[in-house]
Amino acid sequence: MRTSLLFAIVVVAIYIDATPSTAVPDTWTPIPDKEINDSDIQGLGGWAVTEHVKQANDGIKFNRVVSGYIRKAYRGVNYRFVIDASNKDGKEARYGAVLYDKDWRGSRALISFKPVM
Ligand SMILES: *[C@@H]1O[C@H](CO)[C@@H](O)[C@H](O)[C@H]1NC(C)=O
To answer: Does the beta carbon of 34 sit less than 6 angstroms from any atom of ligand 1?
Structure first.
């Protein structure tokens, strides 16, 4: 009996410990200008365009991430980017993209991607 009670306490303790403190979404924080050209940020922007092209098949080409925001999300982070890309005629346009990047297994999702007016 005592053993099963101890087991129950341990299970509860592990459960509480495993609940991430980052579970509550945070507010959007601007990515500083000096970090916007970092290869990880630019790489995520390029990934977002590739993913968008897979879905929309509009053949736009990634140029660069111009600006962005980051916020904590459940077991990962969200990025909100303004991306400069070129269409098939080489005309540049800006797009707003929202991404979800998971903490582990490198799993990502493109949440939205649309032209910025
Ligand atoms: C980032 O790159 C762009 C385009 O190459 C450049 O115009 C800008 O000055 C760079 N920003 C910083 C902070 O290095």
So the answer is: yes
